[in-house]
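sry for the spam today, last one i promise. C-alpha cells for design, 273 residues
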C-alpha cells in the first residue's frame, strides 16, 4: 500500500481543480488523505496511476467523487433535532410565511430530505414548502431521487422515527420490493434536485431554512468561512441555519451575523445582513 504525502494530495487536488473545476484544496487534510487513500487501495492504483486516470479519463471523475464524498447518512438522524424542527423552528417560520423554502446542502443519498418531507407531511404543510436538495456528486443525487434504500437500513431508520415521535410508522411511507424499501414518490414532488458545489458555486436562491449537517466538518477554516458567507447570502433575514452536532460557527468571520437559537442542536438564526 502506497502512503500518500502532502505533496501528492496537492498534486491531486490541483489537477482536479484545473481540469474539472472542483476545489478540494481547502478540505481538511487528514480526512481528504484518508478518502484518497481508500480510492487508491480500492482501484489498486499508485498516486501517479490515479493522476493519470484523472487526467486521461474524464468519465472517471464521477467515480472519484462518488468515493470521495461522504455518504454515511440515515433518516431522522439525531431525533431530538427533528423534534426541535417540528415543535420550534418550522412553527416560527410559519408565523410569518405560509409558504417557504428549505435548502438541504450536501444532500447525499437523500435520507435527510425524505425525513423533512415526512415531517412536513405530518404537519400538513408539505405542499406549501419548496425543498431544494443539492450535492456535488451527481451519482449519489440520482440515488436520492429514487428514494429507494436497502430494507436492512430501515431498522435503524424506524428506531430514529420512533424516537422522533412520528405520527405513525415509517413503514406507512414505503413498500418493500426485492429487498428494497421504495418510498412514496409523492413525498419528493416539491423537491428540486440540483448539482451544486458548496465551494465554487454561487448562491442560487433565498431560503428560510438551510440544513448543512456534518459537511463543514471536512473543510478547513478558510473554506468554512467561505461556505458560511454563501449560506448567509442565501438566507432571508431571520432565516435559520442548522449544522452538524460536532460543528461550530464560533470561529467563522460571519458568526456575529447569527444568533444561537439552540446550542445543543446547532441551530442558528441570521440577524444581520
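last one done:
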Amino acid at each position: 500500500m502506497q502512503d500518500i504525502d502532502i505533496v501528492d494530495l496537492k498534486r491531486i487536488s490541483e489537477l482536479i481543480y484545473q481540469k474539472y473545476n472542483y476545489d478540494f484544496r481547502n478540505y481538511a487534510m487528514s480526512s481528504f488523505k484518508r478518502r484518497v487513500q481508500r480510492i487508491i487501495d480500492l482501484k489498486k492504483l499508485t498516486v501517479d496511476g490515479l493522476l493519470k486516470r484523472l487526467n486521461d479519463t474524464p468519465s472517471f471523475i464521477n467515480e472519484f467523487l462518488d468515493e470521495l464524498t461522504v455518504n454515511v447518512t440515515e433518516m431522522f438522524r439525531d431525533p431530538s433535532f427533528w423534534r426541535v424542527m417540528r415543535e420550534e423552528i418550522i412553527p416560527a417560520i410559519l408565523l410569518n410565511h405560509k409558504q417557504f423554502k428549505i435548502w438541504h446542502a450536501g444532500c447525499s443519498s437523500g435520507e435527510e430530505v425524505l425525513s423533512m418531507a415526512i415531517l412536513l407531511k405530518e404537519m400538513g404543510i408539505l405542499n406549501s414548502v419548496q425543498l431544494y436538495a443539492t450535492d456535488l456528486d451527481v451519482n449519489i443525487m440520482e440515488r436520492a431521487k429514487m428514494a429507494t434504500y436497502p430494507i436492512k437500513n430501515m431498522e435503524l431508520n424506524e428506531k430514529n422515527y420512533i424516537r422522533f415521535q412520528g405520527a405513525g410508522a415509517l413503514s406507512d411511507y414505503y413498500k418493500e420490493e426485492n429487498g428494497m424499501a421504495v418510498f412514496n414518490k409523492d413525498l419528493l414532488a416539491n423537491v428540486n434536485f440540483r448539482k451544486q458545489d458548496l465551494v465554487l458555486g454561487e448562491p442560487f436562491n433565498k431560503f428560510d431554512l438551510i440544513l448543512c449537517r456534518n459537511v463543514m466538518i471536512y473543510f478547513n477554516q478558510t473554506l468554512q468561512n467561505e461556505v458560511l458567507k454563501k449560506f448567509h447570502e442565501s438566507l432571508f433575514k431571520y432565516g435559520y441555519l442548522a449544522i452538524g452536532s460536532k460543528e461550530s460557527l464560533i470561529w467563522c468571520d460571519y458568526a456575529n451575523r447569527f444568533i444561537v437559537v439552540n446550542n445543543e442542536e446547532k441551530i442558528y438564526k441570521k440577524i444581520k445582513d
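Strands lie at 100-105, 129-135, 148-150, 174-177, 180-183, 191-195, 207-212, 235-243, 258-262, 267-270. ok im logging off now
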